[in-house]
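Bug #77: duplicate submission created two jobs. Keeping one. Sequence:
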Amino acid sequence: MPDTQAAIAPRALIERPATPRWHKPRLALPPRLRRFLSPLALVLLWQAASMAGLISPRTLAAPSTILVAAWELTLSGELPAHLAVSLGRVLAGLGIGLSAGVTLALIAGLSRLGEEIVDAPMQMLRTLPFLALVPLFILWFGIGEAPKIALVALGAAFPVYLTLFAGIRGVDPKLAEAGRVFGLDRRGLVRHVILPGALPSALVGLRYALGSAWLSLVIAEQINASAGIGFLINDAREFLRTDIIVVGLLVYALLGLGADALVRRVERRALAWRPSLVKG
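Kept job's structure:
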């Protein structure tokens, strides 16, 4: 009997895992929520510094003041009205820019002659800074809505063109050869092989285009605007209302994040055949 107990004791010690005393339980929060802990800490520090007088309201309003300003602007209908104007400009500019970018990328990507005609001017134009084009756009289109929409369209066209062109030229030639073996003509290769192969790059370009469109809108709404989020920010600057300025900036940021999240969802569904996305 003593021999049996001596044999059982070491086995029990082996099977029972040792728990170190220094081990501390982690926060039982989902990963998505843990990502917001550091921004929340920064906002709390910002609020504390404002309440302690370390940050002047004329330099930067406190988060509580910004929330109150956003609530008042929403209740009065001023913020939704300006937001609707900005959304209209972005949607119009995106429609024009995406159509132009996709069309030019298809011309340049599917034809050597098209590349020689289209690619060089596009590469030259994309290096021009937007601010340098504002005076020309005012001379060409006036000071109404046309120059604002044109700037947004220009900002959205180049990312789509560059990524879709690279995606078309980056399709594996072996896939095209396999398509020819199965009897696909040129139109069939473009529809069933080249365009699906370039779709991931095109969706990345769409994400960049959305971000560039919002950045272009910030510049565009400085051109004699009488409505829009940019006009709201400029008007608040004249009265040193940093709370309203930050509200406008937050609206821009949230719209950009929302648009990017929408494209990510479309990307997951459109590219569900990719193993990397299926596993994620």
